Amino acid sequence: MPPLHPNEIPTTPALVRELLATQVPEWAGLPLRYAGAGTDNTMYRLGDEYVVRLPRTPEGSPARELTWLPRLAPHLSHRVPEPLRHGAPTDRFPAEWTVSRWIEGEEPGPGTVRDWTAFGTDLATFVRELRGAPLMGARRADGLSWYRGGQLRGIAAQAEAALAGCAALGDALDLDLTALREVWKTALALPDAEGPEGWLHGDLRPANLLVEDGRLHAVLDFGTLSLGLPDAEHSPVFDLPPEARTAYRAALALDDTTWTRARGWALAVAALAVPYYWQTLPDFAAESVTRLRNVLADAAGTGPDDRAPDTAHPAAGTVAP
C-alpha cells in the first residue's frame, strides 16, 4: 500500500519482527504475515491468535483502546478488540503499537450479511449500548475529544472546502454537486444538537465491522473513541443498503432533525475523503463517492444510486483531514 500521509512510517515484516523480538519476545517466533492496512494503521497477523497493529504516523496512538476498551467491553454485546501487549516507540518505529487478540469474521456485504434489516438493528444496538455505558470518570479533556462529537457547524469551513475540492475533480466524479450543496445547507441550517455527551466509536464504516453467520459479530478500530454528541455517530449507516438504514433509524427512534444532521455529517466526512484519497487510495475515494450518492438518494426519498458498488471496500480507518 503506498504512503497516504506526508509523515507516514513505513513498515515491513522485518521491522515488526525486530519490535517483537525486543518487546514481546515470548511471541517473536510465531508466524507473521501482512494482514491489511487502513488509513491510520497497518496490521500483521501473528500466529493464529494475535494481530500486531501499528499506526501509520507518529501521531497515531493506541492509548484510547488500551485505557478504555477493557472497561467498556463488559457493557457491549458485540466483540471489540482486546489489547494484550503495549509496544513502546523506538528509533526505527517512533510510535506506540499493540498486539491484540485476532477476531475472526468478514466485512459486511451482500455475500456475508443474511438480512440487512437485522444488521441495521444490530448496529443500532451497539451504538445504544456504547453511548449508554457509564463514563467511569472519563472526560473529553482526557484525550477523548474528536471533531465528530461536536456540532455540525464546527466543520462548516472544512466541508465547504472539501466540496470545492470535489468540484475540482470535474466529470471524473460524476456527482450532482449542486444537489449535495443543498443537502449540506439544509443540515447546516438546523439548530445545534443538544443532550448529554456519551461514548462514541467515531468511525462505524463497514471496514470496521465484522460479520459472522450473517450477523454483526464485532466492531473494530476504536482509535477515534471519544465523548460527545451522537449525530456524527449515525453517519456511517449511509454506507449501508436502505433496509439497514431504515432499521437502524427505527431502532434508535431518530427524529427528522437528528436524521438530517446525521445525513449532513455523512456528506461532510465523505466529501473530506474524496479529494484527499483520490490519487493515493482510490478504493476509499470510491467508497466515499458511494456514500455521497446514498446521501442524495436518501434526501430525495429514493433508493440507492444503481451505479453504487455492491460491496464495501477493504480500507479501514478514519478520514485524515
From TrEMBL:
<dbReference type="InterPro" id="IPR051678">
    <property type="entry name" value="AGP_Transferase"/>
</dbReference>
<feature type="region of interest" description="Disordered">
    <location>
        <begin position="300"/>
        <end position="321"/>
    </location>
</feature>
<keyword id="KW-0808">Transferase</keyword>
<dbReference type="Pfam" id="PF01636">
    <property type="entry name" value="APH"/>
</dbReference>
<protein>
    <submittedName>
        <fullName>Aminoglycoside phosphotransferase family protein</fullName>
        <ecNumber>2.7.-.-</ecNumber>
    </submittedName>
</protein>
<dbReference type="GO" id="GO:0016740">
    <property type="term" value="F:transferase activity"/>
</dbReference>
<feature type="domain" description="Aminoglycoside phosphotransferase">
    <location>
        <begin position="35"/>
        <end position="265"/>
    </location>
</feature>
<dbReference type="InterPro" id="IPR011009">
    <property type="entry name" value="Kinase-like_dom_sf"/>
</dbReference>
<dbReference type="InterPro" id="IPR002575">
    <property type="entry name" value="Aminoglycoside_PTrfase"/>
</dbReference>
